[in-house]
Amino acid sequence: MIELENVAYSYGGGELLTDMTLNVAPGSFHFLTGPSGSGKTTFLKLCYGALQATAGHVRLFDRDVRGLSRDDVAILRRKIGVVHQDCQFLDHLPVTENVALPLTVSGQDPGGADANLKELLAWVGLTGRADALPPELSGGERQRAALARAVIMSPDVILADEPTGNIDWEMSQRLLTLLVELNRMGKTIMIATHDLGLIRAAKAQVQTRVLRISNRRLQMAGADL
Amino acid sequence: MRLDLRTAARMLQFDERADRVVPPTGFTARLTLFSAFAMSFLVVFALALSLAAGRVADRWGNELAQSSTLRISAPAGEVATQTEAALRVLRTTPGVVDARALTLDEQRALLSPWFGADLPIDDLPLPQLIDITETDGGYDAAGLRLRLAAEAPAAVLDDHARWRRPLIDAAARLRLLGWASILLIATATAAMVTLAANAALAANAQVIAVLRLVGAKDTYIASAFVRRFALRALTGAAFGTLTGIVALMIVPSGSDSAGVLTDLSIQGIGWVWVLLIPPLSGLVAFVATRYAAGRVLEDLA
Predict the structure, then answer these.
(1) What does the pLDDT average to over A187-211?
(2) Which InterPro entries does the annotation name (chain A) (predicted)?
(3) Is the pLDDT of residue A87 over 60?
C-alpha cells in the first residue's frame, strides 16, 4: 500500500531523513513518534507524495512516486486521507463545503453524496455546525471536520499529523475512537504524534505498530509503548 | 501542466463549485477590470485610427495610380496647337487609357472654391489642363516627358507623385503605428493581468496547499484562477469597447476625402475587429493567467 525503500530526504544541504524502509500493510494501525523536529511531518509528506524522496523509492499503491507527474500524484492522493495539526481549511467556505472539498476537486457532485455528507457530519458530531465557517470552530471541532474531510472519499489510508496537538484529552479520546472505528472498517491508519497517552489508549483498543524517528532513522519503538 | 485545446476548453467551462474554492479578491478583481476597460477603450481608438489611415492610404494610392494632369502654359495663340500636339503624344503613349482636355466650365469649377463661381475665366491667361487616365500599370513618366519636350514644349506633366507619395507613405505609416499600438496595448494588458494573477495566486498560497492536500490537480487549481481573470477581462473589455464606440461617435465627422481626423470612424469589416476586442482581451487574460498559474504552482510544488 505504502512502501518506502532506503528512502532519504535532504533539504538545504542537510539530510533530514535517511535510509528509511517501511511497508505499510493494508488495514494496519501505525503510530509514528519522535521528538519535535525529528521529521515526522516530513515522513508523512513523503507517504502521501507531497514531497519527493531525494534517495530511495516511495511506492504508493504499487506505483513509484518518482516517475509520476504532479497530476498523477494528485489522483493517487485521493486514496489517502490526510488530517493536519493545523487542519488547513478554506476559511471562506462553510464546514459542509470544506468536508466535501475532495469530492468537488475530483469532479464528483457533492449534492449526489448529500446523504453521506450528513451522515459523516453526524458521525464526527458536527451536524449542528454544518454551516459554520472554519474560524468559528473550536480546536476539537476543526479536527473532527478535518477527519470527516479525510474520509469522505472513502480512502484506503488515513494519515494524521499530530491530530490531537491542539485539543484537550477528552476530545483527543473522541477523535481516537473515530480513528479506531475506521481501522476496524479496514482502513489503514498512520498517526504521527508525541502524545504517548494517545498511543497507550489506542493499544488498548487495536493492534498497533509504533515507529520512532531517531537520529534521522526509522526504528521500531520499545516495549515501554 | 500541458495546455492543449481540450484542457483550455475544460478550463473555461463554467463550474460554480470550482469557482467558489478561490476566495473573492477585491483588489486584483478591480485592477483587472479597470485595466481591461482602459486598454479596450484605447484599442478602439488605435483601431479606428489605423482603419481610417488605411482607408486614406488606399484611396490616395488608387487615385495616384490612375490619374495625372498635363498643363499647357503657352502664349494665347499657341495653346490650341500645343494642346493638340500633347493629346496626340498622349494617345500613342502605352499605359494611357484616356487623355482629355478640360473644358472652360470644368476649369471654372476647379477654381470656383477659391475665386467664386462668377470668375471671368475667359479674360484670364489660364493654362489648359489635360486630364490623363492611366492603366493599372501606368505609363513611363520619364519617357513621356522627353516626348512632350520635343513635340509640345509648353506641356508640363504632373503625375501627382510629388505631393501624393509622402502623404500615402505617412498614412501607411500611421496605419502601421495603429496596429503597433494595438499590439503594445495587448502586451501591456497581458503584463498587468499577469501581475494581478501573480498577486492573487501568491495571496492564495494557503488555498492552493489545501486544494493539493485534498487531491486537486494543477489544472483544476489553475482553472479556478484562469476562469476568474478571463471573465473579468472579458467584462472590462466589453465595457471599454462600448465606451470607446460611444466616444468615437462624438468625434465630428467630415467627408470621406477629408482625411484621417474627420474620418475617424469604424466602417464595414472594421466592426468585426471591434467586436473581437472583448473576446481577444479575454483570451489575452486567459493565456497570461495560465502562464502565471503555471509558474506559481511550479514554485509552490
Answers:
(1) 91
(2) AAA+_ATPase, ABC_transporter-like_ATP-bd, ABC_transporter-like_CS, ABC_transpr_LolD-like, P-loop_NTPase
(3) yes
Distance of residue A88 Cα from the nearest chain B Cα, in angstroms: 6
The reported pLDDT for the residue numbered A196 is 87
- CA dihedral (A121, A126, A130, A133) positive or negative: negative
Cα–Cα distance measured from residue B150 to residue B143, given in angstroms and rounded to the nearest whole number: 11
Evaluate if residue A223 carries a pLDDT over 70: no
Q: Give the end of a domain, one of B153, B184, B204.
A: B153
**pLDDT (average), residues B224-246:** 91
B171 plus B207 within the same structural domain: yes
Task: Tell me, yes or no, whether B201 lies in a domain.
Answer: yes
Whether B147 has its CB under 8 Å from any CB of chain A: the answer is no
**B68 located within any domain:** no
> Between A and B, how many CB-CB pairs are < 8 A?
62
In CATH terms, A25-49+81-220 corresponds, of 3.40.50.2000, 3.40.50.300, 1.10.3210.10, 3.40.50.150, to: 3.40.50.300
8 Å CB contact of B207 and A90:
yes
**How many angstroms from the chain centroid is the CA of residue B20?**
41
Cβ–Cβ of B215/A71 closer than 8 Å? no
Residue B83 in grid coordinates: 494642346
Query: What is the residue extent of each domain of chain A?
Result: 25-49+81-220
Residue A47's pLDDT band (cuts 50, 70, 90) = very high
Q: Which triple of cell numbers denotes residue B271?
A: 466592426
Chain A nearest-CA residue for B20: A93
Distance of CA B299 to the CA centre of its chain: 41
Q: Do A77 and B213 touch (CB under 8 A)?
A: yes
Shortest Cα distance, chain B CAs vs residue A86, angstroms: 11
Q: What is the pTM of this model?
A: 0.72
Q: Where does the pLDDT of residue B130 fall: very low under 50, low under 70, confident under 90, or very high at 90 and above?
A: very high
Q: What integer is the mean pLDDT of A171-178?
A: 85
If you count them, how many residues does chain B have?
301
B87 and B25 fall within a common domain? no
Q: How far is CA B301 from CA A25, A69, B4, B213, in A?
A: 28, 11, 22, 11
Arithmetic mean of pLDDT, A69-98: 88
As for how many domains chain B has, the answer is 2
